[in-house]
Design brief:
The complex is a heterodimer. Chain A is 81% helix and 0% strand. Chain A is mainly alpha-helical. The longest helix of chain A is centred in the middle third of the chain and has 47 residues. By secondary structure, chain B is an alpha+beta fold. The chains are: A mainly alpha, B alpha+beta. Chains A and B meet through α1, α2, α3, α4 and α5 of A and β23, α7, β31, β32 and α12 of B.
Chain lengths: 280, 656
């Protein structure tokens, strides 16, 4: 497979792969949702003429009734869904690898997948190190909060204490996100420069430390875009009044949501292309 | 001993329960005349307290002294007094209140610093200056480890309607806040801080009890005149109206009066912000910590809605002032409590931002207690549903009428109503225990909360929705008016419901409260077939006819049948909707009598479904999910679509 030049690494040049990743994500999500959905559909709600439309009624009478009567079964189903989420999150490494290789190289089909699969062990290692670092950040934040807890409660009013907690959370989240960005840069380096995990991580850290502003801006732009897409979808769906009868409403909501997810995948691909260009 | 006590209590309450049922079932109840003005006036001055309290904010103690003017309002003489020393509930970890290691009370919290009350002097002016306290029993009856329920023998007899004056001195040590009382830093909430006389019933029995973690209080009306002496920097709030305040020697000395009342609480903290607002002529003082401005606004908004409505429904608010205490987060356990003329609320400052109506809910609930506890001073120990249950209904009724489907929570398009939550809690434990039983008889506080608060509210809500909300409101209005400043019993409530709503409603209410009665409507079967032309041998006027339509030849008419069952012992009328293929519906009503009924149909449309109680009138229905049947599953895919989308978002965030 031939590596592409920086100028050719663009998400828009790989719509097919973006579509495939979206489809895989849709199928994964359907598998994750299936156990809980099975419990809901088996609760008796489908005996009502309006079916599970009742779950969205103002007041939540039937929603609470389903939760109350199916609580234990739902717990089991939720555990199944959680495990499936973990499995698909791990499988996501493969899709990610395919996406990164496809964005940075010419070629398609079997060779592309074979090349992508080669990167999965390295990605796993990079992901593990990043997770450890992110866990460490959260632990430090928790310890800081515990240390500040008594002092702040003695000298500050509760809203101020809560704001300190929120500020600590924001700082911790910021650090976690920075580590995530470095992880993406490292993966890009592994694909683009054929580095092993250790060297790729070092490369990622160096690139980030050399141009933190530009990289942060590139990430933030797409993150804000993603958030905007999710919020816009929520506003549009709200106006469709899905709690009212009409199959067309469900189809419209499904369409809107999938357009939103597709846009999220495209933005993710755009960000990965950016990281590939940075490390190239 | 405890087992036999339980058996005795069980028998007693079963007996009372059946008597109540009998009353509820009487076809023509006797009219209960309103109490005479003289009787009411006598009831208002049974136990009046004039107290002086000096707070040592460093030692967290209150030096108390004063007098109690008590009238033996019973028809029997007495040679004893019973005093509740509630603060001794927090004296050590072996008291009735704290001995359970499993957190049996409302908060389940353990005491970090102990609290207690030491009475040093108790004398009766009419009997000389002898200190009677050394002769007092050292502990609660049959419980050497508890000192919350103390008998004091009197040297002389107190005749019916005779009045005596007790002089007393005591030291109250506040615990670190466990439940509703105590201190946290410089915040001091003084609830149940003084020796309090038990109520003596008309027949001469003393309604005394050791302080159980699931129980609350019961006492006589009287006038309270309390002078509090606190450090000058403290902001003070108390039951009643401030009639005097001065600052002297670095101390703030304030005098409050309230009458008629049956308790007195006060709070002092140097961190309070103070807001005032007049609502319907009532001077409302809100004490809240800094940074809680939005909660303060929500509190006043709730009071502006609730005070006029409660006055319309349950009679005038009885005092010229109301103090609302919003405790700081560190003292949250003192929140959510009611005293005459003073309520405590609470909730985190960001709850309104999350769409939670917690501040409104707790404010409305505690204000409602000014009637269901304050004005209607029921026995909270023996019949907790009379205050908490009725008040939960009052709260539910108000929040529903004000906020509708989002009366509990509204966020991101999801609206949750108080009615739905109460219904779910009520159904969860409906079969476990009776609602109408003493507080300490419940298996756990969770059980008490579900049954006393939610099931009573849901039962009344069902009565209102089935028999008429206005009729129920009128019945409660009559109950509140008839027993204003009295001590009504369950029988009084059932009498009011029977007179205002009807015999059947009262019977159902009594059964739901006393007999663990429940109801579950379900659609057992639904069938719909194309009608067949008559076939066979018919003997008519023209002779015998053999009708032989082609086998299976359909008629033009559809025939349908729905079988509806009622499980449980409550008999409540209910609507049943039959649904046809063309989308039309036909509503039928079943009176709920018998255990089953059928609805037959013959017409041009195919019957495809049936729904019992489509408008959720019978909120007591034990299971709503069996209320419908359909000839085909109605899978709309709404839930699956949402679940898939959220899973996609989850994968976007947790995935690589």
């Amino acid at each position: 497979m031939t590596p592409l030049g920086n100028a050719d690494i663009r998400a828009v040049q790989r719509p097919g792969i973006i579509g495939v990743v979206w489809l895989l994500r849709l199928l994964s999500a359907a598998c994750i949702a299936a156990p809980v959905n099975a419990v809901i559909q088996g609760s008796g709600i489908t005996d009502f003429q309006r079916g599970d439309e009742l779950l969205f009624e103002p007041g939540a009478t039937m929603l609470i009734e389903v939760l109350r009567t199916q609580w234990k079964t739902l717990g089991g189903a939720a555990r199944s869904s959680a495990w499936l989420t973990l499995v698909f999150a791990c499988l996501g490494l493969v899709w990610l690898s395919v996406l990164l290789v496809a964005l940075s190289h010419q070629g398609r089909g079997g060779p592309l997948i074979a090349r992508a699969v080669q990167h999965v062990p390295g990605f796993t290692l990079i992901g593990g190190v990043t997770l450890l670092a992110q866990g460490g950040v959260l632990a430090v934040a928790a310890l800081t909060y515990a240390g500040l807890g008594d002092w702040s409660a003695r000298w500050l009013n509760q809203p101020s204490v809560d704001m300190i907690w929120a500020a600590l959370g924001v700082v911790a989240l910021f650090c976690v996100l920075v580590l995530g960005v470095i992880q993406d840069l490292s993966r890009a380096a592994a694909v683009r420069c054929f580095f092993g995990p250790g060297r790729a991580l070092r490369h990622g850290i160096r690139h980030f430390s050399q141009r933190p502003g530009a990289i942060a801006a590139g990430w933030s732009l797409r993150a804000v875009g993603s958030l905007g897409i999710v919020l816009a979808a929520a506003v549009c769906v709200e106006r469709l009044h899905v709690e009212q009868p009409g199959s067309w409403r469900i189809l419209c909501v499904f369409g809107l949501h999938q357009i939103a997810v597709l846009a999220l995948v495209a933005l993710r691909a755009s960000w990965l292309a950016y990281t590939l260009r940075q490390v190239g | 001993m405890q087992s036999s006590l339980k058996l005795c209590l069980g028998g007693l309450f079963a007996l009372v329960g059946h008597q109540v049922l009998a009353i509820a079932q009487e076809p023509r109840p006797p009219t209960v005349p309103p109490r005479s003005a003289a009787a009411v006036a006598a009831d208002l001055e049974v136990a009046s307290y004039t107290l002086r309290a000096r707070l040592d904010a460093d030692a967290h103690t209150i030096q108390g002294s004063g007098s109690i003017r008590w009238t033996n309002a019973s028809t029997e003489p007495t040679t004893e007094l019973w005093l509740h020393l509630y603060l001794n509930a927090f004296k050590n970890d072996q008291t009735l209140f704290l001995r359970s290691p499993f957190g049996a009370g409302r908060s389940g919290a353990r005491a970090a610093e102990w609290g207690y009350i030491d009475v040093t002097k108790l004398s009766v002016r009419q009997f000389g200056s002898q200190n009677l306290w050394p002769q007092a029993e050292p502990h609660s009856p049959n419980d050497p480890l508890d000192q919350t329920d103390i008998r004091v023998p009197l040297p002389e007899l107190v005749s019916p309607f005779e009045t005596i004056v007790l002089d007393l001195e005591f030291t109250a040590k506040l615990p670190q806040i466990v439940e509703r009382t105590g201190y946290s830093g410089s915040y001091h909430f003084a609830g149940q801080w003084f020796p309090k006389l038990a109520r003596r019933e008309r027949d001469g029995t003393w309604a005394h009890f050791a302080f159980h973690p699931q129980s609350e209080f019961y006492s006589d009306f009287g006038a309270y005149d309390v002078t509090m002496d606190v450090p000058q920097a403290m902001v003070l709030g108390a039951s009643g109206a401030r009639v005097e305040e001065r600052v002297s020697g670095g101390r703030r000395i304030s005098r409050y009066r309230i009458s008629p009342a049956h308790d007195f609480a006060w709070v002092a903290w140097d961190g309070f912000r103070e807001l005032h607002q007049k609502i319907r002529g009532v001077e409302v003082t809100l004490l809240h910590p800094a940074g809680y401005d939005s909660s303060a606004r929500a509190t006043f908004d709730a009071l502006e809605i609730a005070l006029p409505r409660f006055e319309t429904l349950y009679g005038r608010y009885p005092y010229p002032s109301l103090t609302v205490v919003y405790p700081p987060a560190a003292a949250a356990a003192s929140g959510g409590m009611e005293y005459p003329g003073l309520i405590t609320t609470g909730g985190r400052w960001f709850y309104p931002l999350l769409g939670l109506r917690a501040v409104e809910s707790v404010t409305v609930h505690e204000l409602g207690h000014q009637w269901f506890y304050g004005v209607l001073a029921t026995d909270e120990h023996s019949w907790p549903f009379l205050d908490e249950g009725l008040n939960s209904y009052a709260e539910l009724d108000l929040l529903t009428s004000r906020f509708g489907a989002s009366s509990a929570w509204s966020f991101g398009g999801l609206q949750v109503s108080s009615r739905s939550l109460h219904r779910a809690f009520a159904a969860a434990r409906a079969l476990d225990e009776p609602v109408a039983q003493p507080a300490q008889s419940f298996a756990s506080f969770r059980s008490l909360a579900s049954l006393v608060y939610s099931r009573t509210a849901t039962a009344l809500d069902t009565l209102g929705r089935v028999y008429g909300e206005e009729r129920l409101r009128q019945a409660l209005r009559d109950y509140a008016a008839r027993h204003r400043f009295g001590h009504p019993t369950p029988q009084d409530l059932l009498t009011a419901v029977r007179e205002g709503v009807g015999v059947e409603a009262a019977r159902n209410l009594a059964a739901a409260l006393f007999d663990r009665a429940w109801v579950d409507y379900l659609v057992d079967d639904i069938q719909s077939v194309k009608g067949l032309r008559p076939a066979g041998v018919f003997d008519g006027q023209t002779g015998r006819v053999h009708l032989k339509p082609p086998p299976g030849a359909p008629d033009e008419q559809w025939m349908g049948r729905v079988v509806v069952l009622r499980r449980g012992t409550l008999e409540l009328p209910v609507d049943v909707d039959l649904i046809y293929e063309d989308g039309s519906r036909q509503r039928h009503q079943w009176d709920g009598h018998g255990t089953w009924t059928t609805f037959d149909y013959r017409g041009p449309n195919r019957l495809i479904g049936a729904i019992i109680d489509p408008d959720h009138q019978v909120t007591l229905d034990q299971n709503l999910l069996n209320n419908a049947a359909s000839l085909s599953a109605n899978r709309t895919g709404r839930f699956f679509e949402r679940a898939v989308y959220f899973a996609q978002l989850l994968l976007s965030s947790v995935g690589p």
